[in-house]
């Protein structure tokens, strides 16, 4: 290695692989017809350099913010790299943003230009929020915009930028706007050094290497996907595949056959439901009792999902039901729960292979310190902590203790081995009419273990007792009502049996309106927007209480 700094920053990593493994495939992009296009390191470097040269020609101020909107794609990563090679700062936007939030981020970030990538049906929802005067460039697979130049045209007409900007580890690389589950999104400033430190320290746990493969499908606008897919792929030089759509997801997963896979509980649940529709649980149990047949069936199930080569399976954003963890474990796939934030570039806590403790998010990752504050808040000091919030020094100061620990806003407890258990959010505590405080998250976790429940929100501020709003899975919603009523009533009694008197749920409400990212009930990372849900349903609580039913259908 002639250049000792070749892994000091992610753009430096690109230059290294472009030189040492030019013909190795880096990115594989599926197409609408089911085919896929491969891009080698040479091609990625060439396209990124040409776009960087074009950005330089615009004479923008040094280190300008350049926004990037779109679903995950090969050219999303190329655009990110081009922004860095030109000496600028990337500002990713979730493709599921509404127009109002997109307008706020673009204005607040002082974005000078916007890359628009693959948007499909989402473009009309966000387009009204894009300032008319903001220059745009469309990526391949992006919408066709009148008067807007496309990536391919610019790359074809622009010479390569041979002398790229040298980026320093302590320099601002990206501003990641939080998903905004409460209030306006905040711009988290992440340095190049923080991005590399997440990878370097993470290697001490998971031993990632050049031969690994990943499928990128969770939003690249979120810290987790960039920390677990983009950053390590650039650092280690492994191959990344992309998903085309929900309809082709399994096909895309089978193409990738990932060795590393990161998902969220709702998708792990959907995978299981898809398998159980074809092979019911009772039949699985019978087949698993036969040793030789068991190995064949389990391998076939994993192959059906495209997960047969996975050596490391990670999950986060919300707790997994123990029964679901056990189901995957029986298949030979150990799901490792972890915990982190945008503010520390997704580097904080994780369970380890062979040491997964259900109900915890594991111990602090190497280099991370933790403690629990007097009010129960989790405090974390990570080597990948943010530089601060963009244009908000006051909020930055408020978010750290005097000795440099990040105030996570989450509540938790530690076991005797130092493993962390998340017990709720500090700001999510609410007071009932009896003056008692209720922490909703632990109750939601208990209810969420039922496989028929897709999402849950415990509410009840100002009510005599709390209650729970349930969104059922599609199969459950179309099932027989009386049987489901009986099952949910039994679940209510089961959960109430272990709760304190002031926490006991008065009733369960089955909602009929889906909670999605598009209608604002879920964040782009699929977390329930508690304030939106409560704003929609809390006014009906008096009527539900007066009905005196254990299960209410909205």
Architecture overview:
This protein is of the alpha/beta class and 554 residues long. The protein has 4 domains: 10-240, 3-Layer(aba) Sandwich (Rossmann fold), CATH 3.40.50.980; 260-308 and 310-339, no CATH class; 351-426, Luciferase, domain 3 (Roll); 429-553, GMP Synthetase, Chain A, domain 3 (2-Layer Sandwich), CATH 3.30.300. It has a 5-stranded mixed beta sheet with strand order 11-12-13-14-15. It is globular.
- Mean pLDDT across every amino acid position: 91
CATH class identity of the largest domain: Alpha Beta
- Adjacency order of strands in the biggest sheet: 11-12-13-14-15
Biggest sheet statistics: 5 strands, mixed
CATH fold annotation of the largest domain: Rossmann fold
**Broad structural category:** alpha/beta
What is the approximate shape? Answer: globular
The number of domains? 4
Strand content: 15-25%
Low-confidence stretches: none
Q: What is the tally of helical segments?
A: 19
Helix content: 25-40%
Question: Kindly, what is the distance between the CA atoms of the first and last residues, rounded to a whole number of angstroms?
Answer: 64 Å
Show the helix and strand layout.
Elements: H1 10-20, E1 25-30, E2 36-40, H2 41-57, E3 65-69, H3 74-85, E4 89-93, H4 99-108, E5 113-116, H5 123-126, E6 136-138, H6 151-157, E7 172-177, E8 187-191, H7 192-206, E9 213-216, H8 223-236, E10 239-242, H9 249-256, E11 260-263, H10 265-278, H11 281-288, H12 291-305, E12 312-315, H13 322-331, E13 335-339, E14 349-350, E15 363-364, E16 369-372, E17 377-381, E18 388-389, H14 393-398, E19 406-414, E20 420-425, E21 430-431, E22 437-438, H15 440-447, E23 453-459, E24 467-472, H16 474-477, H17 481-496, E25 508-510, H18 530-537, H19 541-547, E26 551-553
Parallel strand pairs: 1-10, 3-4, 3-5, 5-6, 9-10, 11-12, 12-13, 24-25, 25-26
Antiparallel strand pairs: 1-2, 7-8, 8-18, 13-14, 14-15, 16-17, 17-19, 19-20, 21-22, 23-24
Helix pairs in contact: 1-2, 1-8, 2-3, 2-6, 7-8
